[in-house]
Amino acid sequence: MTEPGKWDRQATIYLFLWNGLFKPTALSKELKKAYVEISNNDLERYSQVIYGSIMESFKRLVSLLNLSVSDSEMDLDDVSALETTVVDMDQATRAAMGPISGDIAKMQANCVKDFDIFHNLSEFWQLFLPEIRPDLFARWTFVIGNTLIELSAKNPLVSGFYKMFATCLQVCQSTRFFQAQESMANIKVT
């Protein structure tokens, strides 16, 4: 996994890239330089297609990762081994939990590389989703939410799924998604 703080610096660079992709005015200016005219509707459809591709890729990638864990017979006095095999837990979470006892302390990732990928994907998700066109997430709320719920039920010890779902709910709240759904339900009832 990346060292603390390094991911934030890297993610900032990538957020700049993603912001550029989703700012239709920047794309429009570049196309005008090449003497290509494009309507605002086409620019919005472009953003929706790119966003949809990202959501589909995320869904597929997170579903393909092997996030299973198994019981290991490691020596609990060996702290360095424990820190490298704890399931998707950052230092703050580990400290908040206090001492670990029971079977969970013996759990080890079956595929450490997949856990590393998932950790980075989870961190990226928490930065990307609220920052880059959260208005486009409304059409993906059910699909992504359902995927995260299924995967968290399959891998209940992987905290990243709960963090990602919390980010989804925060975006829904900031875009007033649930209020819109509630008002549509009231219209259908009356």
Short synopsis of the structure:
With 190 residues, the chain is mostly helical.
What this model shows, in words?
This protein has 190 residues and is mainly alpha-helical. The chain is built from nine helices and two strands, in the order H-H-H-E-H-H-E-H-H-H-H. Strands 1-2 form a two-stranded antiparallel ribbon.
What are the main properties of this structure?
globular, 67% helix, 3% strand, single chain, mainly alpha, two-stranded antiparallel sheet, 9 helices, 190 residues
Tell the overall outline.
Answer: globular
Domains, number: 2
Trace the largest sheet across and list its strands.
Answer: 1-2
Q: How far do the termini sit from each other?
A: 53 Å
What is the H/E order? Answer: HHHEHHEHHHH
Low-confidence stretches: 75-86
Give the arrangement of secondary structure elements.
Elements: H1 6-21, H2 24-33, H3 40-64, E1 69-71, H4 79-85, H5 91-97, E2 107-109, H6 112-131, H7 141-154, H8 159-174, H9 177-189
Antiparallel strand pairs: 1-2
Helix pairs in contact: 1-6, 6-8, 7-8
